[in-house]
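User: ok so my PI wants both of these folded by tonight, can you help

Assistant: No problem, let's get them done. Here's the first:
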Amino acid sequence: MGDLTELSDDALVNRLQRGAFSYFLDYANPENGLVADTSRSGSPCSIAVVGFALSCYTIAVENGWLERAAAANLVLKTLQFFTQSPQDGGPDSTGYKGFYYHFLDMRTGARVWQCELSLIDTALLLAGILTAASYFNGDGDESEIRALADALYRRVDWRWAQNGTETVSQGWKPECGFLHYGWEGYNEATILYVLGLGSPTFPLTQKGYVSWGSTYQWENLSDTDVLYSGPLFTHLFSHAWIDFRGIRDAFMREKHSDYFKNTKAAIALHREYGERNPHDFKDYNRNFWGITAGDGPSDGALQLDGRDRRFFGYMSRGVPYGPDDGTIAPWAMLATLPFGADAALTGTRHLLTTYPQVCPNDRFASGFNPTLTAQPDGWLSEGWYGLDQGLLAMMIENYRTGLIWETFRKCSYVKVGLKRAGFEGEWL
């Protein structure tokens, strides 16, 4: 296949996008459409990964990687599964009140690991469902896709998920009810509120979005004004589907900004943090960054080069307040392409040139830590994570063609949700 670094920018991006998409062909159950959370043996399905997969099938059709009929059939099987799977809220069912448990058995679809009924992961699943419904606008299977997608979206009881409060809970378990923590501060939940507000059946109350916004932290960091959220993924997930360019809610109108510009500011902070490298981690620099949620080395406390270090496993890392243990997500720089191609490509090429092992078989690993020198070239996460691959494939497509943004905004529910959240401007 040749050295990735020898390719032109367009060829490099195309190859890495196809490599990322191929995860969904390699680690999906074609009988029910469920997709594994990771490539590791025995991994359960993550419903969020299914949402990314459903969106990525449209990309595959447009790029000629899947025939349209084959992609539609795969989408239809997925929606049929979620329509027919048990929704009684039992400890071994698939979901409740239109929401779904975070992790499901790949074969049966039953809940695993006593996981929570997840609001954000259901929202990401629904985003994929609505994207597919908007894209597949033909007859036959495509007509059934639209009907099932509409029914799945309409049955979600967002009001129940408010649990008598203005904002939403993060989740619910049959063993103990609603989890005793909610969403505070800016994060990836924007798409959750937009879809909840857009519901024609059980919509979230508009005050909830305003109440959530009252917990935001607007800060000046390194001479940059930014709506703070430390992990990079929180600035990307909602943007994978929603085109925030030129539309603003009340919060952003007051700040004379928008969420797209805010993500650009957050990326600038990540690059500045890499250059400053306050904790003296190996190889951090302006072209080596991407601190976010992902896999980590899990080696606990160690002393390296005369310094006490603490390393973590899978967790959400952030900039500039941490936690930070020298672990970056190799895919993260390229996923910022829509917000600044020069920074994304320069950083990605630097990484691939210095550490080519981070991208086996054209797919980026979840985590990489060169500071942990127990291995000659640092620690590298085993295998791949579906969330990483899906987000990367979608962001590349939004950079190249705007496909997902254009497809998603054709959905009337999305427009209603954005307007109820107070968004105005440009395409709205």
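One down. Here's the second:
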Amino acid sequence: MGATDGLRIRARTRRAAVLVAAVVAVALPLTGVPASATSANGPVVKVGMITALTGPLASNPDTKDALLASLAAFNKRGGAGTNHAKLQADVCDTKSDANGEVDCAHQMVDDGVVATLNDLTFNNPAGVVDVLTNAGIPRIGLLPTSLPEFQSKFSFPVSAGAIAAYLGNAVAFKQDGNTKICLMRTDAPTGATFKGFIAGPFSAIGVGITCDVSVATGATDYAPYIAQIQQEKPKAVLISHSDSVTTQLIAAMAQLNAKIPLGGNPGSFTLATLRKYPAITKGTVLSDSFPYPSPANAKSFPGLKQYFADMKASGNSALSMSKLKTTDFSAWIAALAFLDVTKNLDSFTPATVVGALASAKNVDLLGLTPSWTPSTPGFSVFTSSSNHYVYNSRFNGKDIITNKTPIDVTQYLK
């Protein structure tokens, strides 16, 4: 997911590389997924996804392919619920437009989806909440960007959210002695409120935000932004923007020899960019609720092997090891969460899925995040965020390595 505004993620993040032997990976048991070889042969169950596949703030056009590959893999392993229901994707492209987001929400209602997976709406999130709330449609694994989404009773983010991820960055900055940072963010409408939203928790961690730089989405010259950062002389820079813009910012830093420690959400930084400019990017901190999905982390987090195998099984070149993006992982983990919480259902409607979410406890998502109880009250204003943990990863000049110990962010939020 590359980051699209000051409150988004993520989108969530995570690149895979080398595949561990397919036979071993496929043999890895999935919690809540039928272990038999029976393919889905029951009724069709529609699940949706609302996201920007095109437009100026598109997160990743391959996200749709990743969701299709995920559902195909789960269908092959038995589908959903007790009657082996066959999952079908209904993906709507918002085109990065406020009206498009609401139109997509209406499409979900009209098409009869029982839930949405991995939603990302950042121009008119409140409008989307209104439509889906009125229809009683739960949103599993969405990437919340606003208070209406965080506080909706139909929001079920699997991750702790973008704000929690940035708090993980702040913890790492403090550990490195970088206590004065500059924020570089998108000029999207919600971006202007970002600094005020995170300043308090950052201060509680011991990190001050000394400057706030809005980077235009359509910019063609990024050198002035870097020159502005150099004048401010921060100890580190927190980037919250799309991966394409972040790549341009890092290239400008290299050109101007601006060696300032970096941090952000994994969706903002491609591994290719990090490797291209190691003199600038070595030590970059990436924070999220999941380990960075790379082969370097597969030993510490073996659940990643199933993800690698499912993407490879699609045969889609865009999902090959060298091209996987962290937003692809977000779609897969949302599908995994849906399968797990609905494993005992014999009838699928929005109401039965909401009921399953309300009763699900200690959901084990292959050890890729601490166990998840969707109905658990959240923290601070993030009442829907049942996951309170983030992992910090660092780029060592070649690979991104995730620390096995997660951080509980609730200690920094009132």
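Residues 92 and 107 are 8 Å apart (CA to CA). The chain has a mean pLDDT of 88. Good luck tonight!
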